[in-house]
Specification:
The chain is built from 5 helices and no strands. It has helices at residues 3-17, 22-28, 33-41, 48-57, 62-73. The relative contact order is 0.20. The model has no long low-confidence stretch (mean pLDDT 88).
Length: 90
């Protein structure tokens, strides 16, 4: 699994947890629905700016979303995922 695919899976899982449609998340993140769809499929690399906007729209921190993507990419079973470690200042 590529990092792009893992990040897309992380976004999709967090979106579903938040009970948002792709269109709702795209609007909250100030992006087109088609762009969010490509991001969730891992079809594109994304900018840090977009990571920040998507994270904010999901009420999380960019580092937490990237950490989650890293866990997915390394094959950690989703049921076994622990919350990301606390980082001072967050």
């Amino acid at each position: 699994m590529t990092l792009e695919q893992a990040f897309g899976a992380a976004v999709k899982l967090r979106r579903l947890e938040a009970k948002l449609s792709q269109e709702e998340l795209a609007e909250k993140a100030d992006m087109l629905g088609s762009a969010l769809g490509r991001l969730e499929r891992g079809a594109v690399s994304t900018s840090l700016e977009t990571v920040g906007r998507v994270a904010a729209a999901l009420n999380t921190k960019p580092w937490a979303l990237l950490w989650f993507a890293g866990q997915i990419q390394t094959g950690v079973r989703l049921e076994a995922l622990e919350p990301p470690p606390h980082i001072a200042g967050d």
